[in-house]
Write a structure and sequence with these properties.
single chain; alpha+beta; Rossmann fold; 9-stranded mixed sheet; 6-stranded mixed sheet; about 40% helix; hydrolase; DNA_methylase_N6_adenine_CS
Length: about 1250
């Protein structure tokens, strides 16, 4: 503390200044403290018995003296009498072995030694003194040798910062704790210690170097009563704020690492148990907290753990209705009431056995396994650090706290969710979903509190968010006192008891105590959960959990329609059953927002198909929001949010429509003549026919039980016939003797009858689901997240950080969730008309709002019937989020399906790729082996097992069926040698009498083809086109001679591309050879650390929200670790002068260097380094080449970062500047040749397309 700060402190403490003397009077003792500025004296009340042994602390000679004076002021203010305080009694110091003086010595009211305080200036001096104390006892323990009866010693520092006193205290008890000594007879005591060394050893070994940071100056501590044995909520805790939240996870992990705690899932469970204890403590023990380590003078590990067990017992019983065994010491003593003797060995033995059972086995607070006293002590140390981390903070609050969710989410990254298919919903997504539900309509229109449920509540995020949302609505439409009744109608179900505890803890943190948490399986029945009783459901149910059905009784399994699709009870499709459970739980007109895997929309197994049928039958579709891979952090799973509404009519609409379809097929003439009778609904037939572009008069033949051959002029009916004829049933029928014995006419009649029934069965189902989807009350609002990761993060409003010390979710807009900036929702106003959540909320109520221009790229209204594909034989009710537009090339030639021009498609081998030997092994072709130009790369692989069916023949055609490469093609020819193909490829063996392979190859390079690919992709999480869909690809088919002309003209373009490719390769080689020649002529060396020649710098971090989605002419290109591809565009600049060339290198990606010519502005990120040359000794082009070469030798990579320090450590060899300049001009010419050749390659596809258009 400096003099100027000391003066400010005196004013702050209430000292009055008169004639250069600051004075403060203490009326309780009728004495003064004074500071004489003129004479630089610190004046103490010696007239009242205050003892000053030396003048060294009574002047301004040391800043430490100001700390002593402030400490004395604090003592007097606390109530210590002047006669009890002595400054600088002379004793022996620890490190110097010279005579020394303690700063402050205090006696109790009986004039016995009580406390020694050593004062230090804040910061380094204080930390150094404490370091010495920990090492060997330091000054403090040396003083004890002179005053052995002293009960406490303390290290103290203070400073005056920002108009506030900031203090640091380390208080050590010198009193023996008899409880601890009785528990272990081998431990040494302070009273038996004979010297400083032994006294320090007692503190270290017996009392584990225990100290406290409170106990002398707090408001609820009386003078002379040092140490706290009672802590209160108001005084000794403070609410959690952002700074506390930020480092808690890192601190928790650091403690675990420090003690080598490897069972991290278990450690988090212990932490949750501790939270539960703390919440019980804050609720029930506000004036005498039990969740607090009181210091070694007043506490022991056993007493602390006993208090925790009692709190945990009460929490589990009161909050989760679970009985946890707890037996107190008092109950043990009561059991011996009949024994009158004061001392009883039996009683002591039994109590010792009980203690071992109670504390050495099966603790709910075990960070490590405890089997004995040694393990107990080790675990207690960890437990103590965790408790001290939280004891001074207050968990219970009425405001939302994200820290628990963040910490839990990142902790689970270490194993739980990967093994169990669980991951937890980020709070922004919870807020978005809840903000999108029509809660105000529900609450205002209901006379009773509405019921809500999350049947996979996990950590309770949805429940807390729902409660926060309804609170102001209830207050507005009902009254404030009704809020708790609405909380009582909120239910969470969680199968895992650990998470159930978390959810209950979370509810208490938000002040939502009445929320019901049920520790149970949501797919099972529960007495508190009634079917069709919930008005609102929000959830993120688990995905892909193995054997979940085995945990349900057969009686329960049979309650699900989906069980009909299950052959193996080890089935993993738990998400499907949760969707059917939603159908069971929601009341008529109940609303839901449910997160499910994108595969729910289009997987083709029976369980997923049946799930979609249930959704279409029992729910109105309001909105589907497609979430991108950045939503859940590392999981990367693509998901959708289904915003659906339980159909409200009784009997079920699905049953009525099913009956009506049966009516149409049973007596169409009657239905037609009466216009559907009372229902007046036969217009659905004409609507269906219009939708499929089918002549209704022809379609009516099916309803009339007539098979008209004209039907087969319609493509879909021709497909039906083809599928029917290729079916196993019909092939087997034709082989039967009974069938063969029939006449041709009889055979024809039987087959036609079966064909008609086959068609009617398919059409009945299609018409039924068309009727259901056609009657969806509104169009479906489809919201699609951007595919680009950077833009997607802006769309979400957050990103995930794994940086040590700041792990968790990072909001764009500010540290707090309420500051988040996202188009999805407004955290402060659920009625913000600018947000997507408002569009969905209003859409629920039938108020379809116009989509704003800035959202039209991501949002659209689509008829539900347009999201289903009725044009395929296999009608699997896939729900497509992109409207299927008919994509066909206009041609004067007929269109043929690929399936009609080839053999049936064949999927490739699912074999492991291994290294192969060229010209010896059979090559294994995978998607990754096919270049963008349709050739194979140089990586030669073969397969472990080779089956003949996967060996390719000349002119076999391969299509990529999955992933980002879907649509890519490869034409195999014998020039590639013997090959087989892998499972993510589909082979079509073409009929070369109908179609030339090279004609098809050229056709698949056109925009017509790629538009068809985009339009026919299925799967949101993993794009896919199967063999059946590829077979439906329509291709204009001119005569073979015209195909030959097309191939010939396209070959000329291919020849130009080949020539351009050669030019590029040759030019690049000439550039490399030229630089190598220059390097061989090098005569000078230049250190990049030479600041006179080089300016080496690093860029600045660019936030995702700073990247422009629509760059303008004023935007500057941003480069990051990839110094060739722009990272994005930004409106601000970092570098001001671009009059010199620059050389860019990637700091922490794959090693790469790029030359950037002058007058070309750019913005480097903190992953991009920049070198500029100040003198004419190196040309930028040469430096870029030489730096790249040197970096390769240094083996720079992602793992071996190219930091600025390492770059500066490099030495560049170079020839004369004139030679460099001369070759640089040659490089410019060669680069122009490369660019010209690239243009030829880039325009090749367009040229081919024009050729095709000309002929077709």
């Amino acid at each position: 503390m400096k003099l100027e700060d000391f003066k400010k402190l005196l004013v702050y403490l209430g000292f009055e200044l008169k004639k250069d003397v600051y004075t403060k009077h203490f009326s309780q003792f009728d004495c003064d403290l004074k500071v004489d500025l003129k004479n630089e004296k610190l004046i103490y009340p010696i007239e009242k018995g205050f003892i000053v042994n030396s003048e060294t602390t009574s002047n301004f000679s040391s800043n430490e003296n100001f700390v002593v004076f402030e400490c004395v002021h604090r003592l007097l203010n606390q109530g210590y009498k002047p006669e009890s305080i002595e400054l600088e009694p002379s004793w022996k110091l620890g490190h110097s072995n010279k005579s020394g003086r303690a700063d402050i010595f205090i006696k109790n009211l009986q004039n016995e030694p009580l406390l020694i305080i050593e004062c230090k200036t804040a910061g380094k001096e204080f930390e150094k003194a404490w370091k010495y104390t920990l090492e060997d006892g330091g000054q403090l323990f040396s003083y004890l040798e002179q005053e052995k009866a002293v009960e406490f010693i303390a290290l103290y520092a203070s400073d005056f910062i920002n108009n506030e006193i900031v203090t640091s205290q380390k208080i050590i008890s010198h009193k023996d704790n008899e409880t601890i000594l009785l528990e272990n007879k081998e431990l040494k005591s302070f009273k038996d210690a004979k010297n400083v060394k032994e006294r320090y050893k007692v503190w270290k070994d017996t009392y584990k170097q225990e100290f406290t940071e409170k106990g002398i100056f707090e408001e609820n501590i009386q003078a002379y009563q040092i140490g706290k044995d009672k802590y209160t909520l108001d005084i000794d805790t403070k609410p959690i704020d952002a700074t506390d939240k930020k480092g808690k996870y890192h601190q928790f992990r650091t403690i675990l690492r420090k003690y080598n705690v490897s069972r991290r899932e278990n450690a988090f469970e212990v932490l949750v148990n501790l939270f539960l204890c703390k919440i019980v403590d804050e609720t029930n023990n506000k004036d005498d907290l039990k969740f607090y380590w009181k210091g070694i003078a007043y506490d022991s590990y056993f007493d602390l753990v006993d208090r925790l067990q009692e709190l945990y017992h009460k929490g589990m019983k009161d909050f989760l209705k679970q009985e946890v065994v707890y037996v107190s010491n008092e109950e043990i003593d009561k059991a011996f009431w009949t024994i009158k003797q004061k001392r009883n060995a039996t009683k002591d033995t039994i109590k010792d056995i009980f203690r071992q059972l109670k504390f050495f086995k099966g603790l709910d607070f075990e960070f490590i396994k405890v089997h004995d006293s040694k393990g107990f002590d080790k675990n207690a140390k960890i437990l103590l650090e965790i408790i001290q981390m939280w004891q001074g903070l207050r968990l219970l609050t009425t405001e939302q706290n994200q820290f628990l969710g963040d910490m839990f989410e990142f902790f689970l990254d270490n194993g739980i969710k990967q093994s169990e298919g669980q991951f937890f919903t980020p709070v922004p997504i919870c807020k978005f979903i809840v903000s999108s539900l029509p809660l105000e309509d529900k609450i205002s229109n209901s006379s009773e509190p509405i019921k809500a449920i999350d049947y996979a509540c996990g950590a309770g995020h949805f429940l807390n968010e729902y409660a926060l949302n309804i609170t102001p609505i209830v207050k507005k439409h009902k009254n404030e006192s009704a809020v708790n009744e609405y909380y009582k109608n909120i239910y969470g179900i969680e199968k895992e008891d650990r998470l159930a505890k978390v959810a209950k803890v979370s509810a208490f943190m938000y002040g939502q105590d009445e929320i019901n948490i049920i520790d149970a399986d949501a797919l099972d029945n529960h007495k508190e959960i009634k079917e069709q009783s919930f008005d609102c459901l929000v959830a993120n149910p688990p995905f892909a959990v193995e054997d979940f059905l085995l945990t349900l009784d057969e009686e329960i399994r049979e309650q699900y329609e989906l069980i009909e699709t299950i052959n193996d009870l080890g089935n993993k499709n738990i998400q499907c059953f949760f969707l059917e459970r939603a159908k069971q739980l929601l009341a008529p007109n109940g609303v839901a927002g449910i997160i499910v895997p994108s595969s729910i929309l289009n997987n083709s197994d029976n369980t997923h198909i049946k799930t979609r049928e249930i959704l279409l039958k029992y729910f109105d579709f309001v909105s589907i929001v497609e979430l991108g891979s950045q939503t859940f952090g590392k999981t990367g799973t693509n998901t959708v949010i289904l915003f659906i509404k339980r159909k409200g009519l009784k009997p079920e609409v699905a049953t009525h429509f099913k009956n009506r379809i049966d009516d149409f097929f049973e007596d169409w003439e009657s239905e037609k003549s009466s216009n559907g009778g009372a229902y007046q609904d036969i217009n659905i037939i004409s609507s269906y026919c219009n939708h499929l572009d089918i002549d209704i008069n022809l379609y009516e033949k099916i309803l009339q039980n007539i098979l008209d051959v004209k039907l087969f002029d319609i493509e879909i009916f021709a497909e039906y016939k083809k599928s029917f004829e290729n079916s196993t049933e019909i092939k087997n029928l034709k082989d039967k003797k009974q069938f063969k014995d029939k006449s041709s006419k009889q055979q024809k009649e039987e087959l036609e009858e079966k064909l008609l029934k086959y068609i009617q069965k398919i059409e009945k189902e299609k018409l039924y689901f068309y009727m259901l989807s056609f009657n969806n009350p509104t169009k479906v609002l489809v919201v699609k997240s951007p595919s680009d990761n950077k833009i997607q993060k802006n769309f979400l409003g957050y990103e995930w950080s794994g940086a040590k010390g700041s792990e968790g979710i990072k909001y764009f807009g500010g540290e707090n969730i309420n500051d988040i900036e996202t188009p999805l929702f407004d955290p402060k106003n659920r009625d913000n008309e600018e947000k997507i959540s408002y569009l969905i909320k209003e859409h629920f109520s039938g108020n379809t709002k116009t989509i704003k221009d800035e959202y039209k790229e991501h949002c659209s209204y689509i008829n539900l019937v347009d999201m289903l594909d009725f044009n395929r034989v296999e009608f699997n009710k896939s729900i497509n989020l992109s409207v299927n537009k008919k994509v066909e090339i206009e041609s004067k030639y007929p269109l043929f399906k690929l399936g009609d021009l080839s053999e049936a498609p064949l999927y490739g081998a699912n074999e492991k790729a291994i290294d192969g030997i060229e010209n010896q092994d059979i090559r294994y072709i995978r998607i990754t082996d096919i270049n963008d130009n349709g050739t194979l790369n140089n990586e030669f692989k073969t397969a472990e097992n080779i089956q003949e069916q996967y060996i390719l023949k000349d002119n076999d055609f391969l299509f990529a069926r999955s992933g980002n490469t879907v649509g890519k093609t490869f034409l195999y020819t014998e020039k590639y040698g013997k090959c087989l193909f892998a499972g993510y490829l589909i082979r079509f063996r073409l009929n070369d009498k109908k179609i030339l392979p090279y004609y098809l190859k050229n056709y698949t390079d056109t925009s017509f083809y790629w538009k068809w690919i985009i339009n026919n992709i299925t799967g949101s999480s993993q794009p896919n086109i199967n063999g059946q869909i590829y077979s439906s690809l329509k291709i204009p088919l001119p005569p073979l001679e015209i195909q030959e002309e097309i191939v010939k003209d396209c070959q000329k373009v291919d020849d130009e591309v080949s020539k351009a490719t050669e030019i590029i390769e040759q030019s690049k080689q000439n550039i490399e050879n030229g630089f190598l020649e220059l390097f061989s002529n090098a005569t000078q060396t230049y250190k990049l650390s030479n600041d006179d020649i080089f300016d080496v710098s690093i860029g600045k971090r660019v936030l995702a929200k700073e990247i422009e989605e629509n760059p303008s002419n004023e935007s500057i290109t941003v480069y990051s670790a990839n110094v060739f591809e722009p990272f994005g565009y930004i409106k601000k600049d970092l570098l001001k002068d671009f009059s010199k060339d620059s050389v860019l290198w990637g700091i922490d990606g794959d090693w790469m260097v790029n030359f950037m010519p002058k007058e070309k502005p750019f913005y480097p990120t903190d992953h991009c380094g920049v070198v500029r040359i100040k003198q004419d000794v190196l040309h930028g082009r040469y430096l870029a080449w030489a730096l790249n070469k040197a970096g390769i030798e240094f083996r720079f990579s992602r793992a071996n970062r190219a930091s600025t320090e390492r770059i500066k450590g490099m030495v560049i060899k170079a020839p004369s500047f004139e030679e460099q300049n001369k070759f640089a001009l040659e490089v410019e010419k060669l680069e122009k040749s490369i660019n010209d050749a690239k243009k030829i390659i880039d325009t090749a596809k367009n040229k081919k397309e024009e050729i095709l258009k000309k002929y077709l």
